[in-house]
Amino acid sequence: MDFKVFTQNRADYRYTMHMFPMLRLFLSSILLILWLTGCDSAIDRPVVVEFWAMGQEGEQVKALLPEFERRYPDIRVQVQQIPWSAAHEKLLTAYAGDAMPDLFQLGNTWIPEFVALRAIEPLDERLKTWPSAAVSDYFTGILATNQLGNQTWALPWYVDTRLFFYRTDLLAAAGFSGPPATWDGWLQIMSRIKTLDGAQRYAILLPVNEWQLPVILALQRGAVLLRDRNQYGNFQHPHFREAFLFYLSLFKEGLAPPVSNSQMINLYQEFANGTFAVYVSGPWNIGEFERRLPAAVKGKWMTAALPGRVVPSTRSSLPSQGRRDSANPVPPSLGGGDWGTGDDDLAAGVSLAGGASLAISRTSPRQDAAWKLLEYLAQPEQQAQFYRLTGDLPARQAAWNDSALTSNRYTEAFRQQLQHVQATPPIPEWERIANRIAYYTELAVRQEMQADEALVALDRDVDRILEKRRWLLEQGLAP
Amino acid sequence: MTCRLHSQTLSAWAFLVPALLLMAVFFFLPILAAFLLSFTDFDIYALGDLDRLRFVGLSNYLQLLQSPLFWTALGNTFYFVIVGGPLSVVISLGAALLVNAPLTRFPGFFRTAFFLPVVTTLVAVAVVWRYLYHPRYGLLNYGLSLIGVDPIDWLGDPDWAMPAIILMAVWKNFGFNMIIFIAGLQNIPMQLYEAARIDGAGAWRQFRYITLPLLGPTFLFVALMTMIGYFQVFAEPYVMTQGGPANRTLSIVLLMYEEGFRWWNMGYASAAAFVLFVLILAGTMLQLKLRRREPS
Amino acid sequence: MNRLIRCLLPLLGYGLLALGLLLTLTPLLWMLMASLMPAGEASSYPPRLWPGTITFEHYAVLFTRLDLARYLFNSTLLAGTVTVISLFINSMAGYAFAKFHFRGRDRLFQSLLAALVIPAQVAMLPLFLLLKQFGLINTYWGVIIPGMASIFGIFLIRQYLLAIPGSLLDAARMDGASEFRIYWSLVLPLCRPILVTLGIFTFMGTWNDFMWPLIVLTDSSLYTLPVALANLLGEHVQDTELMMAGSVLTVLPVMLLFVVLQRYYIAGIMLGGMKG
Questions:
Q1: Is there a contact between B245 and A209 if contact means CB atoms under 8 Å apart?
Q2: The pLDDT value given to residue A70
Q3: Among residues 26-65 of chain A, which lie with CB inside 8 Å of chain B?
Q4: Among C81, C137, C235, whose Cβ lies nearest the Cβ of A55?
């Protein structure tokens, strides 16, 4: 185990120059490889657009590209797939390291952040070549999340909002013919389901560590999340508080199990078993439910728009959410929405304007080619095709007339819901604020903190996060 | 003679320069910069435009001390160090004693087997353990069910997540300390034990009065290295729990990574890094002092 | 009584050793077995320890669809390059500290050792900004350069060389050999065992490193195996068997390296441990 000390006599060292032939071989091959991989002989090659997409989108979008490359033979697309869980930090790191892709997907709540970084190129000049009908074809509430300071920074790729997935048979067994329209009705249904036979039953599965649903409920209650030009948290306001308490009460009364989604061992199995009858989720679960639910519950579930806190007709004057700075007037379509005027008699409560967008990097030397790809992916045909591949709902309403969507009975609720969506505050800090909301929600759900304590702490954290923003506004350095 | 010494100095520096230069530029300079950075509010705004950078004095440190999240991370890190560290050292020592016992045959085989987890890639085995910890299909709960223990939601239950991570970390690195202990044990002269036996000392007394005292320096080294390493826990929670559930496995380094590379609060993250540095330094000093005070 | 203990003791010892063996090796064996199971089989109750039918489909998927060969290549290239370069740089410095007398030598060496207490994470944030200035983010060099010199490596070489008599070197000097020549053709060969040891350490350390490559490499074509594996987990967390195959491929090369060269590796730990 110990070392043998080499006992060479002193004449030997002259002949040891070739002691490490293997080492030398290795070293020179490494240098060769490094040199080879370092060079990029760019002679007469097509333009290569680097495109980052996340999760399954990154996987599936590849199927759309051969057609694109056929139409533009001088452009090649290189897709890099990033997992959602690391996407935000990867994009920021890439930005900080000057290694941004030409075109990239990003969550639409991240757009203000990347605008503040000056990382994305505004699209208005290029959009002038579009017929105006094409632009207004986007769901307005969703498109608004891509617009900031009178400029359009990205285009929605697919849309996403949250609503009910529920077991029709269990609701019927509890004596209800349809989904609830109001919070009261919702509570009624849930407590009735809870008392159905079977000991280990909950009414609804709610995430304990996500910000979306508490925020949705607060928006339905008419809460303004941040006050004074988005400079301070407003979470102790009675409106937010009421919604927050409502959310917590669902756990306290045993209507929802206090476990996180990742702990629900097999969500689909439990839904089929009737462990819970209602689940709040997004469009990606349509496909998952169809694939993974056992045959026994086929046709026994449905989607529905969220209930509102009160009946639609009485809630006409909700304050608009996500107010822009006074320097940037509010686009008329943004915010409060136009409920009550729609022809849908199903009372949709407001939900979040979620989804993912496509943006072009400001420093990209291949912006023209990247724009061609963006335009291609924005075409209704490609949007419909993308829906077929991924189940992601198209951002262009024209694509919804495609048979793939009209034949799916679960998508209609989403179409309704998408008419009633609100954006989160359009500030770079939102992602961090949302993270704090999720954190305190979890603490409160797990009863490690009192609800009011949590809200005080949340406001304090948020005020601290927004300190830099207040300073920038004071200095007139537009954030 | 002076000439010879002078040329020696020159040659020595010639040999030293590449290493020193690299370390100066890529280690010591960044550390100095981190120190300066911790007094600024370097964030995504500053990243986009340096005009939006402010010197903020001690406010990052003050904020850190006021942040419940930081205290959570600090508590978790201490939990990991104080429970995991001694556990790892004790198990290593036990394994070393067993492998090194004169009665044990094939010590080489056992040594290699116990050492295997050390050379594995942390990320890979963290992935493996995620599945071993699966509440329903995991091997661990199955093994426990055989002796009548109800399933535990290892990574999902706030009270079990940290023990689960400690268990995995101990599994991963007890072999390393075991080797050092074996070396220490082999350095103890056999004659001491023989003399003790002649005096009628039993196995326990031999262990208490010969093995333990003579292992002293090894013990200190192992304890120090384990502590320093455990203070820097990152990949285990990053891969297995992302710091959850309810932030119960959020460590200081993970907090630093999140603040620094997820939210790009470089100033704040640098302050967190320096607090970690001070903690490690204090822990090292404390152990050295305790050891020195002990009668040899 | 005494005889009873003397009979039971080895039994107890072997019992504990067997238990230790079981606990140590089960995770690794299960990883291997699960990687050979058909999709879905690893998520069955009671858990299976042995694949019903052995399949290599997950390995095939990794190499065809998920580009694992690329990551294997990256990991090998990076770990190999860092190892070779750092061996040269550290051995030169270690040699200087062990065999030359110059003013401030001991103080310099001691302050380097003291710096071992500084966690590498402290340097990471500004190091990122620094490498950005050099345009090295998202390149192999961004991973290689910070690993080229290590205090521990210098320490190990110095400890080893201290035990070697200086008379050999003096004799060469008398012969008029240049200093570099002495280093290259006398010191390096003398150091071969410790170089092998340090080489394994460095190779494994770089291979297994996670945080820094995770930060520096943004382009997936440059990912190392651990980064790619963590990336893969984001998308394929449900595919237990596939993830296990990926873990096997990440772990196997370093394990083989260890088993083949363990004599040197363990000797290195002892040298580092004892004299420290």
A1: yes
A2: 95
A3: none
A4: C235
Q: Can you give the pLDDT at residue B60?
A: 94
Tokens read off for B240: 């297995």
Domains and CATH numbers, chain A: 47-160+358-382 (3.40.190.10), 163-352+413-475 (3.40.190.10)
What is the rounded CA–CA span in Å between residue C89 and residue B25?
15
Q: Report whether pLDDT(A317) > 70.
A: no
H or E element, residue A238: helix A238-252
Which of C266, C178, A59 minimizes the C-alpha distance to B119?
Answer: C266
pLDDT at position C201: 87
For chain C, positions 144-163, list CB contacts with chain A under 8 A: 160, 163
CA B81/CA B280 separation, integer angstroms:
11
Residue A336 has a pLDDT of 34
The DSSP secondary structure of chain B, one letter per residue, reads -HHHHHHHHHHHHHHHHHHHHHHIIIIIHHHHHHHHHTTB---HHHHH-GGG--B-TTHHHHHHHH-HHHHHHHHHHHHIIIIIHHHHHHHHHHHHHHHH-TT-S-HHHHHHHHHHHHHS-HHHHHHHHHHHT-TTT-HHHHHHHHTTPPP--TTTSHHHHHHHHHHHHHHHHHHHHHHHHHHHHHTS-HHHHHHHHHTT--HHHHIIIIIHHHTHHHHHHHHHHHHHHHHT--HHHHHHTTT-STTTT--HHHHHHIIIIIS--HHHHHHHHHHHHHHHHHHHHHHHHHHHHS--
The label of the residue with tokens 């900080």 reads A96
B123/C226 Cβ within 8 A: yes
- C-alpha Rg value of chain A to the nearest Å: 27
Per the CB < 8 A criterion, the answer to whether A13 and C182 are in contact is yes
Q: Could you say which residues from 106 to 125 on chain C have a Cβ atom under 8 Å away from some Cβ of chain B? A: 112, 115, 117-125
Q: Which residues of chain C have pLDDT under 70?
A: 1-3, 5-6, 272-276
pLDDT at A441: 93
Note the ipTM here.
Answer: 0.86
- In this complex, the chains that touch B, judged by 3 or more CB pairs closer than 8 A, are A, C
Fold of B36-42+54-293: MetI-like fold (1.10.3720)
Task: Give the nearest chain C residue to A11 (CA atoms).
Answer: C172
Of C10, C121, C246, the CB nearest to B253: C121
Span A118-170, pLDDT tens digits: 899 999 999 999 998 899 999 988 999 999 988 999 999 999 998 999 999 99
**Chain B residues within 8 A (CB-CB) of chain A?**
41, 43-45, 47-49, 51-52, 54, 63, 68-69, 134-136, 153, 156, 158, 242, 244-247, 261-264
Tell me which chain C residues have a C-beta less than 8 angstroms from the C-beta of B5.
Answer: 101-102
Chain segment B3-29, per-residue pLDDT in tens: 566 777 888 899 999 999 999 999 999
Q: C197 with C272: CB under 8 angstroms? A: no
B294: pLDDT strictly greater than 70: no
Per-residue pLDDT at B217 exceeds 70: yes
Report CA torsion sign: A261, A262, A265, A267.
Answer: positive
How many whole angstroms separate alpha carbon C5 and alpha carbon C14?
Answer: 14
| CB-based contact C137 A99, cutoff 8 Å | yes
pLDDT on residue C1 = 53
Contact C140/A at CB under 8 A: yes
Shortest Cα distance, chain A CAs vs residue B36, angstroms: 19
At residue C266, the pLDDT reads 78
> Cβ–Cβ of B112/C262 closer than 8 Å?
yes
Fold exhibited by the domain C57-275:
MetI-like fold (1.10.3720)
The answer to whether residues A303 and A229 touch, using CB atoms and an 8 Å cutoff, is: no
What are the pLDDT digits (tens) for C141-188?
999 999 999 998 999 899 889 888 888 888 888 888 888 888 998 899
